[in-house]
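Hi,

I'm pasting everything inline rather than attaching a file, because the server keeps stripping attachments. The sequence lines come first, and each chain or strand is labelled.
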Amino acid sequence: MSVSNYFENIKDAATSVFEGFTITMSHLFRKPVTIQYPDKTPMPVTDMIPERSRSWLRVEMDICTACLNCEKACPIDCIKIDTEKEEGVGRYMTHFDIDMAKCMYCGLCTEPCPTGSIHFIPEFERATYSLDQMIERFVPEGGKVIPYKPPKKDKPEAEAPAAPEAPESPAETPQN
Amino acid sequence: MMTPMQDLAFAALSGIVIAAGCLIAFSRNLVYSAFALLGAFVGVAGYFVLLGADFVAVIQLLVYIGGIMVLYLFAVLMTSGIGDVTLTNRSIATKASAPLCIVLIILLGKLIYTTEWYVAAEPTEIAPTTAAIGNALLTEYLLPFELASVLLLGTLVGTVALARRGVKVIKKS
Amino acid sequence: MEQLAITIHENYLWGAPLWAVNLIVMFGASAVVLMLFVAPFAGITSFVERRIAARIQDRIGPNRVGPQGILQFLADGIKSLMKEDLIPTDADKPLFILAPYLVFLGMFTTFVAIPFSSKLIVSDLNVGLLFIFATSAITAVGLVMAGWGSGSKWSMLGGMRAAAQIISYEIPTGLAALCVILLAGSLSLQTIIAGQGAYPWQWYLFNNPFNPLAFFILLASLVAEGNRAPFDLPEAESELVSGYNTEYSGMRFLFIFFAEWANLYIIGALVTVLFLGGWQIPVGVSEWAGGVASWFPQVLQFLTFFLKVLVFVFLIIQLRWTLPRVRMDQLMEICWKYLVPVAFVCVMGVALWMIIWPEGLPWMTYLLTAVAGLIVAYYCYRVIWQLRNTKATLEFNPFV
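And the predicted assembly:
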């Protein structure tokens, strides 16, 4: 280590510490980025998160075809669909349950869905006091839901009526 | 003449020093012995304060606890198997040291009783001693002082030389 | 204090002997200092440090307990008190229990010699400065004891590092302090302060060109002795979990941290006493307020001293969030290759300076003060430049 190197090191230490101090000092005067969820937010939290953020699963029952693709795709079997057949009525669903306590939000169920019926919505404040309440039941207890029949492929103009890829209108709740 | 408070302090300090000394000598664990040195050093520093030697007391704390004791602890704690019973004071030659100890106690007792202890006629004012010690070291006792520093320098250089050679041997092999 | 003891002896306590009253007053004074000053200071500093750290990282920090979270330290303290007192199976029980008290003792004893104002000091020791350095050695022993007593490899390594670091950095500390001791001709902190004046050019910091260097060396080595970042190797979280306090929990853990935060005050106080004129206020002010001995100048002196200390407490906290932690070899290199030689040069320089100009050079003190002022001004300019350059959204209210 040469003599000039020695003094160079001292100079470097002094200037870099000085520069570091100016940077940290300037950060003291900047606006904190912390959002004090849930009680001190500049606007309602649902407005702050992105429109297409993927937080909670929902099934639009009026366009569900009961194809069971989502049930097969789910890697942890948290989707449970029961179908029955009856003369005159045809095939209908008696259960469409998603156990959100098990769900790991991988999104694999949304991919094979032919109509985009099962999808994520940007709602996330769904904490409950018991695990039972975490099970989303899309078919009401004892109810029957007739599956949606997509129009044939050779009639392109009558294709699936506004398959809600993005939940533009989350007000329509087909839960019951 | 000592005030009751000084008596109390003296008794307390003696208690600390004797207890620490016993722990150093009789502990089954060498680590405890090393840590018990703290009590002995602090107690002796307290004696110096009682004698009005403020500078010596603080230097006792600074050098013995800050320097020597921490180095002892380094050496003790770096030794492997230091917690074993075979490495304690008690396991080392108790029979041979017993007569030595008895002779030492007799000699010291004789010394204590035969010495004519100097007793100050009246309690002296406690005055700062730092400047006086500095003057004495740099005038009257300059030669021993310088000799001691040369000795220490020699030790330092020797240590560095030994350590460096060790490193070089490792590099070659 | 002796007068207080005599007053109490004559008027109260049914004529208890003087020595007993003295004893009570002594323990009482230390309890008062501990309960009314050190404990709140350490607690509030822990809170302030978290808030400053948060703002430096563009966060907000704890602000829920009490107004702006000021009672956070009480909540933490109560939580620590209620916690289970865990002693690991492998721990060396007596040493494990004793160690936090030793750390605490080493820190707290220094308050005996630290002045608060010209009259307010527990005891103005003739060897005050050496006393402060000596008691910090007890802290080192306490840290080694904590490291060994925990019976864990992380604690052990942390304790060893603490001891190595503290005994290494005692040398530059002592040498840098020696620069001031030479000028003051005394080890008593009150005498050292009395040798300086209220205005910056009367401080020992600007007495000669070597003292500013000694000042930075002292500050750096005191930070290292206090195991603060960037020299916090003994508790390096990324490698040693938490170093010597890994196995501690509850009240014992609190004791160790209490000592660390109170140590911040000691660092600031030492630097202030040695280089920044301590509690000195302009003579005109104290005369206008009715002489130095009356209560108002005393309060002013205390506030002056406290303010200077707080500046350094702030700087050390800011330093923690500015620099990354150094490596062990870098730590030793900084000490032995840079701080110690430069400190020796400073001591020799100050000694020569005192021989050549025994009265000091007035124009040099003014020049150095002006240079320091320019550096502070440039610092402010750079801070503003950083803010402008990044086009950041500003928020000057510290109580967000």
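Residues 128-166 of chain B form one domain.

If the labels don't parse on your end, tell me and I'll reformat.
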